[in-house]
Specification:
With 302 residues, the chain is α+β, with helices and mostly antiparallel strands. The chain is 34% helix and 17% strand. The longest helix is centred in the middle third of the chain and has 20 residues, at 116-135. The relative contact order is 0.11. It binds adenosine-5'-triphosphate. The site of adenosine-5'-triphosphate has 20 residues, from strand 1, strand 2, strand 3 and strand 5.
């Protein structure tokens, strides 16, 4: 017995507002005509543009990675339902993250910061998801607040797997991808990218939640890179500028456990960097029961 599977087309959907665009795609909210209650985010990638900009590799990586990660329904991963294409475009039909970018939420808070409770809440969801991603043999390689979206309940979802390293190439991978401020020292110094490089980005995000800006930020990319490889950021133990830094009072006001954890993450040598299992054992997370997924995955609007 053979069943004919109907191919999807753009005509199956009602395209609503644009949600955003990336380097080679535009993302729209869309409703399925057969079930108008169900909203999707459809990422539309122009074939011409992808070929012209040499992005075919990245589009394939994103599709394969989302397919692999979607095999179990982890709440922290944007689900890819299916893909289809027509003459002009490729279409990725994704979970619609109704709550938008976490960064927008961060921007409406005072000074672009979260309080300790919110910071911990989101860190726990990122860590649980990152642990899952790594357990599938995948390095995200471009973890940053812009790639953290919220669903309608305010649960966090990691997106943008266009830079991820496929499992076949899991131990190390070279070439600069990612965003200057979150890039790891091992990538800058040795062209290496490891699971620990995602952990580095995690430390940058934690610092940013508490302080409102990433730890390493120069006037240009080169200055930012110089700061990263010399571990020049305000909470560094050996940083003489600590007392002079304009944000210096955040160091006085911040829970020392957060500073301690950030220092353990922002370690130049990736082999000395704290690992995810040990992050989960850090005293700042003493009140978290990592086995209790329902409590970890509460949304902030639930
Ligand atoms: P690039 O791929 O160039 O790094 P990007 O990851 O920002 O850029 P996209 O994945 O195309 O590019 O997303 C562009 C924007 O669209 C995002 O920043 C986000 O605001 C919005 N967006 C993406 N996916 C979704 C989604 N599933 N639900 C809601 N909004 C989304």
């Amino acid at each position: 017995m053979s069943a004919t599977v109907k191919k999807h087309t753009p005509q199956d959907f009602i395209f609503k507002q644009e949600l955003g665009h990336g380097a080679y795609s535009t993302v729209y909210k869309a409703l399925d005509k057969r079930n108008l209650k169900k909203a999707y985010a459809i990422k539309v990638c122009s074939k011409n543009h992808i070929i012209k900009e040499n992005k075919v590799k990245y589009v394939n990586i994103e599709k394969n990675t989302l397919n692999l990660l979607g095999k179990t329904n982890h709440p922290g991963i944007i689900k890819l339902y299916y893909t289809f294409h027509d003459k002009q475009n490729l279409y990725f039909v994704l979970d619609y993250a109704k709550g938008g970018e976490l960064l927008s939420l961060l921007h409406i808070q005072t000074n672009g910061t979260f309080d300790e409770l919110y910071s911990k809440h989101f860190m726990v969801q990122i860590i649980d998801t990152l642990e899952y991603i790594h357990s599938c043999g995948i390095i995200h390689r471009d973890l940053k607040p812009e790639n953290l979206l919220l669903d309608k309940w305010g649960k966090l979802m990691i997106t943008d797997f266009g830079a991820a390293s496929p499992p076949a190439n899991m131990s190390t991978c070279s070439s600069f991808v990612g965003t200057a401020e979150y890039v790891s020292p091992e990538l800058l110094l040795f062209n290496q990218c490891k699971f620990a490089s995602d952990v580095w980005a995690l430390g940058c995000i934690l610092y940013q939640f508490i302080n409102g800006t990433p730890p390493f930020r120069g006037e240009n990319e080169l200055k930012t890179f110089e700061k990263i490889v010399s571990l020049d950021y305000p909470w560094n133990n050996n940083n003489n500028n600590l007392l002079l830094h304009p944000n210096n009072n955040t160091a006085n006001l911040t829970n020392p456990q957060i500073i301690n954890l950030t220092r353990k993450i922002l370690t130049l040598n990736p082999n000395d960097r704290i690992t995810i299992p040990n992050i989960k054992l850090h005293p700042w997370f003493n009140d978290i029961n990592w086995q209790d997924k329902d409590s970890i995955w509460r949304g902030i609007w639930q």
